[in-house]
Write a structure and sequence with these properties.
Elements (H helix, E strand, L loop, with lengths): L7 E4 L5 H13 L5 E6 L8 H9 L4 E5 L5 H15 L6 E4 L17 H21 L1 H9 L12 E5 L9 H4 L6 H21 L5 E6 L16 H11 L11 E3 L8
Helix pairs in contact: 1-8, 3-4, 4-7
């Protein structure tokens, strides 16, 4: 039986949608020793009211962190804030959930330019790259506290939130749903980042896996999504504790099924 998630957990893009539900279920399903760092661009803004209420419902378990994943200075400040609170501890789980899509779906080629491509890349690829790099010392510290070579999300791990439409092999099946060039290409880049991190961080016993949350009814996924945020996150909450060495560097869905690159 896999262990439950625990320790210090950081979630990006946590003020709405999948990120907000992740924080909610993590707060409800982890033990008293767990602490969740819920990150969003404007934690004091109106868009984070639900997140603030959630933190109030779980006093001492959720810390709100200001973070814009497309801004390196913001990432640096967030790393410093988390490091200060963690102290001698390490970061057990980094969930790179924040992501954007531009222009509006279906985002055909005719509506897509350099500006949209670069903005989506900065958030969906560069952000997770910098977060993984800058939080690496804290991830290494967490991994060192556990002896042996078995990797897990409870020990030290990065989860990169990807998508089935990042799959090059499945593009023939999914392209008609939405062209969304920037989103597709950025998530394919995130998949390569996952593979590179998995190989690079293996020596440190840090697990790195990409997850597809399913087609979820959110502001980004639209009302036609097949899953609610609860169903998606509930599935991933069952998958993440079961991940081990064999899953590092792979793309899996919310039910733990492997998706081809």
């Amino acid at each position: 039986m896999s262990e439950k998630l625990g320790g210090n957990i950081l979630v990006t893009g946590s003020n709405r949608g999948i990120g907000l539900e992740l924080v909610k279920q993590l707060a409800e399903k982890t033990g008293a020793e767990a602490h969740i760092y819920a990150c969003c661009r404007q934690p004091e803004g109106s868009g984070a009211e639900t997140l603030r209420n959630l933190a109030t419902q779980h006093p001492g378990k959720i810390t709100l962190i200001k973070l814009d994943v497309s801004n390196e200075d913001s990432i640096s400040a967030a790393v410093q804030a988390v490091s200060k609170q963690i102290g001698a501890g390490g970061l057990n789980l980094l969930i790179n959930n924040a992501g954007i899509t531009k222009p509006a779906v279906p985002a055909p080629l005719s509506a897509t330019g350099r500006k949209e491509m670069m903005e989506v890349y900065e958030t969906n690829v560069l952000g997770p790259f910098l977060l993984g790099k800058m939080f690496l010392p804290l991830l290494q510290r967490a991994a060192e506290e556990d002896k042996g070579d078995q990797m897990s999300c409870r020990r030290s791990a990065i989860i990169n939130m990807s998508s089935i439409i990042s799959s090059i092999e499945k593009c023939n099946e999914t392209f008609s749903m939405a062209q969304v060039y920037p989103y597709r290409i950025s998530k394919a880049g995130l998949n390569m980042l996952t593979c590179c991190q998995a190989l690079d961080f293996k020596k440190d016993n840090i697990l790195v896996t990409a997850l597809h949350p399913g087609w979820v009814r959110t502001d980004m996924g639209g009302e036609e999504g097949q899953l609610s945020t609860f169903e998606s996150v509930d599935g991933m909450m069952n998958v993440m504790p079961s991940l081990s060495n064999k899953d590092s560097g792979l793309l899996l869905d919310w039910e733990g099924k492997r998706i081809p690159w």
